[in-house]
Amino acid sequence: MHKLTAKRQVTIPQSICNKLGLEPGDFIQVYERDGVAHLVKISSDDLAGFISPANQEGYPITTQAIKSAIKRKAANKFRGKA
């Protein structure tokens, strides 16, 4: 059992990190479905081509655009579409 901190953080057990190939600095997205939290690992390879459409006008890419791209990719991966 793991305790949620005041900052809503929890330590992912090493055995789970090993199985999922999670390393410090990796991006993950957390989703809830049917009362169960799911972690989805997002790699930079998964995001290839996913951020560029957000910048078709040639403007600098914002942090929000990157976060939105990560969320869309994670949702697709979670649904088995990626």
**Estimated helix fraction:** 25-40%
Kindly report the average pLDDT value. Answer: 77
**For this entry, what is the oligomeric state of its chains?**
single chain
> What's the SSE pattern?
HEEHH
Structural class: alpha+beta
Counting DSSP H or I runs of 4 or more residues, the number of helices is 3
Structure description:
By secondary structure, this protein is α+β, with helices and mostly antiparallel strands. The chain has one domain. It has three helices and two strands. The chain has a two-stranded antiparallel sheet with strand order 1-2. β1 and β2 form a beta hairpin. The longest helix is centred in the C-terminal third of the chain and has 16 residues. The chain is globular and about 50 Å long. The mean pLDDT is 77.
